[in-house]
């Protein structure tokens, strides 16, 4: 017998923990991004970069040439599966290149995923259900992290798998499992820092243009300022005002690519700066979500 | 404290800085349909926030549906369906996705939320429109959609904030009919927060009137009606001014009808017997030609209670307008 849809039917299930709702926030955020055709342009750019790395690894590993020559060819392309001390791992380089696409995508998605909630009154919709501010903030941070992972950590791990798959044996995976862990850890740093900064910025600025301008300035202007100050004062620590550089330096910590104690110290300073930045942003974010009128 | 009470709050106060939004509000309301009325700034929104567990009172305590308003806020919101006044939509989503998200946020398992979203959208009459994007919904359909989002987890109580706000007269009637049917069919308790007293009269069995942060009246609508002044439309032949004066001297409030002579609307206390009209008429040489009882509606009563009867035309005009403030 069919259900009479014109009549009201009771629901007798059990409600789950509000933390499960954070997954719904992530799912909806991804849906919002993938439904915007303009965002696909940026996503395709990210895919092209990944595919070029993928193709380079594939082609080079298919030549019947000694492994050392293969490495040289890949290094010429900007990828090195075995990073020497003092040199960046190919995975860091790849993730850094992907980060440019990530920055562009996040610059525009901040207003859609977070700003619109404040601007269009969706925040009361979220907070008047069973979730509270903690769940909302964690859900949004996870949503941004999912985008970052999709464009950086995920493809980097695929390259790691590809290299091991197309070289002679599984020994690459077994001997360099720490590279996969380093990729995950570096990806985690990118996710934490970028998501906290973007959600906070979007909660305050809300509209696409101010968010995009400020977001770009944060990563382009500060880099330039850091370089200028470093040159003018002959103090390389000025470069640490650039968050991208800080993230890369922290990433090097995981890949263990330090040839001197000064670089090691540099990375720890970068970690301290990022931690402080995230802590301040998180406090500002919590205050912002709390300050919004809930039932208007 | 009685578990059977829908709302049981005592001496609840809340301030925003130096502004006291609520002062010692005490309410004990039985399950049913309750109208929460008041002017802008009366404290309705603050009371709603407290009832939803979104805002902690500075002082006072209480329960809603048996849940403590300070300590059991998550469970409390799991039992309440809240329909916000604001648009409160998530961009890019389709109707069914929006209602499913509401179910997810209430903590329903996702499959249940999705199935239930289809059910409630059909119930509120949006079955055909459920795959439309939210940006494409009309104001009336958006209100129905928000009602569906409030119903998705089958709450015990609905908290509807201005559900007919922004609707044209036909949309308003349709929305009221839908809520009326819902109440009749499910027996759910409903708190209707509105400044449209017509909506309260139509749907509610109890009304709470807030003014300047205090409850100035909380009573069943039927009981309020019984304490309303009796109002009559009166026409007569004979001396005009002396008869008006005599009515006023005997405790009646006399109101001219469009400046017409020998005609008035008269509010008299409930103790007044209609025979007195005729006694006064005889003693002043007047013949009453019309005596038609009129019931004072809630809007007049609200204005009288809040001492704003002088602003009545302006407020009445506001109520007639489709967009409330």
Description:
The complex is a heterodimer of chains A (296) and B (325). Chain A is mainly alpha-helical and 296 residues long. Helix content of chain A is 76%, strand content 0%. The longest helix of chain A is centred in the last third of the chain and has 31 residues, at 261-291. Chain A has helices at 21-35, 37-62, 67-77, 90-119, 122-127, 133-151, 153-166, 171-175, 177-205, 208-233, 243-255, 261-291. Chain A has twelve helices and no strands. In chain A, helix 2 runs antiparallel to helix 3 (67-77) and helix 2 (37-62) packs parallel to helix 7. Chain A is globular and about 75 Å long. Chain A has one domain (18-291). In chain B, helix 3 (95-106) packs across helix 4 (110-123), helix 3 (95-106) packs parallel to helix 5 (139-151) and helix 4 crosses helix 5. Chain B has a six-stranded mixed β-sheet with strand order 6-7-8-3-9-10. Chain B is 37% helix and 28% strand. Chain B is elongated, with a radius of gyration of 24 Å. Chain B is built from twelve helices and 14 strands. Chain B starts with 6 loop residues before the first strand and ends in a 5-residue tail after the last helix. Chain B is of the alpha/beta class and 325 residues long. In chain B, strand 12 (253-256) and strand 13 form a beta hairpin. Chain B folds into two domains: 7-219, P-loop containing nucleotide triphosphate hydrolases (Rossmann fold), CATH 3.40.50.300; 229-295, Alpha-Beta Plaits. Chain A binds chain B through residues 3, 5-13, 15-18, 20-21, 23-25, 28, 31-32, 35-36, 112, 116-117, 120-122, 124-132, 293-296, and chain B through 45, 48-49, 52, 54-55, 73-74, 77-78, 82, 84-93, 97, 101-102, 104-110, 112, 116, 119, 122-123, 127, 149, 151, 153-154, 161, 182, 185-186.
């Amino acid at each position: 017998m069919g259900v009479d849809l014109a009549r009201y039917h009771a629901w007798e299930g059990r409600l789950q923990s509000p933390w499960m709702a954070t997954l719904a926030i992530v799912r909806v955020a991804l849906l919002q991004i993938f439904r915007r055709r303009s965002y696909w342009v940026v996503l395709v750019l990210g895919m092209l970069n990944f595919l070029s790395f993928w193709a380079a690894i594939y082609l080079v590993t298919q030549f019947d040439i000694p492994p050392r020559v293969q490495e040289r060819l890949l290094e010429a392309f900007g990828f090195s599966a075995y990073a020497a001390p003092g040199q960046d791992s190919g995975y860091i380089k790849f993730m850094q290149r992907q980060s440019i696409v990530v920055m562009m995508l996040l610059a525009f998605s901040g207003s859609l995923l977070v700003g619109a909630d404040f601007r269009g009154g969706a925040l009361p919709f979220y907070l008047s259900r069973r979730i509270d501010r903690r769940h909302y903030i964690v859900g949004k941070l996870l949503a941004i992290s999912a985008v970052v992972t999709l464009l950086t950590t995920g493809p980097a791990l695929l390259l790691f798998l590809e290299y091991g798959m197309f070289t002679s044996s599984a020994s690459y995976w077994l001997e360099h499992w720490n590279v996969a862990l380093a990729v995950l850890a570096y990806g985690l740093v990118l996710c934490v820092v970028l998501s906290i900064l973007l959600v906070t910025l979007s909660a305050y600025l809300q509209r696409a243009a101010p968010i995009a301008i400020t977001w770009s300035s944060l990563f382009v202007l500060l880099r330039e300022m850091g370089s200028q100050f470093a040159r003018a004062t002959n103090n390389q620590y000025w470069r640490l005002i650039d968050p991208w550089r800080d993230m890369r330096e922290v990433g090097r910590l995981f890949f263990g690519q330090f040839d001197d104690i000064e670089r090691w110290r540099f990375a720890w300073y970068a970690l301290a700066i990022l931690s402080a930045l995230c802590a301040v942003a998180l406090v500002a974010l919590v205050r912002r979500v709390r300050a919004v009128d809930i039932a208007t | 404290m009685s578990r059977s009470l829908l709302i049981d709050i005592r001496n609840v106060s809340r301030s925003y800085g130096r502004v006291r939004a609520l002062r010692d509000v005490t309410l004990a309301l039985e399950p049913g349909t309750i109208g929460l009325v008041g002017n802008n700034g009366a404290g309705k929104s603050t009371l709603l926030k407290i009832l939803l567990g979104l805002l902690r009172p500075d002082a006072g305590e209480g329960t809603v549906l048996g849940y403590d308003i300070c300590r059991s806020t998550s469970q409390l919101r799991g039992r309440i369906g809240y329909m916000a006044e604001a648009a409160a939509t998530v961009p890019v989503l389709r109707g069914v996705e929006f209602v499913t998200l509401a179910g997810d946020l209430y903590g329903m398992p996702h499959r249940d939320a999705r199935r239930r979203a289809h059910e409630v959208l059909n119930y509120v009459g949006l079955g055909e429109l459920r795959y439309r994007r939210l940006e494409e919904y009309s104001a009336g359909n958006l209100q129905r959609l928000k009602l569906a989002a409030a119903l998705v987890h089958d709450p015990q109580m609905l908290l509807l904030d201005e559900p007919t706000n922004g609707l044209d007269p036909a949309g308003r009637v349709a929305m009221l009919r839908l809520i009326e049917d819902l109440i009749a069919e499910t027996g759910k308790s409903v708190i209707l927060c509105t400044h449209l007293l017509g909506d309260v009269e139509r749907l509610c069995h109890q009304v709470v009137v807030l003014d300047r942060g205090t409850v100035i009246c909380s009573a069943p609508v039927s009981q309020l009606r019984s304490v309303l002044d009796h109002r009559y439309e009166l026409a007569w032949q004979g001396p005009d001014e002396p008869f008006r004066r005599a009515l006023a001297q005997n405790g009646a409030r006399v109101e001219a009808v469009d400046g017409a002579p020998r005609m008035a609307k008269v509010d008299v206390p409930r103790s007044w017997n209609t025979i007195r009209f005729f006694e006064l008429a005889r003693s002043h040489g007047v013949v009453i030609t019309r005596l038609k009882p009129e019931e004072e509606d809630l809007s007049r009563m609200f204005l009288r209670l809040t001492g704003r009867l002088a602003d009545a035309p302006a407020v009445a005009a506001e109520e007639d307008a489709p967009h409330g403030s």
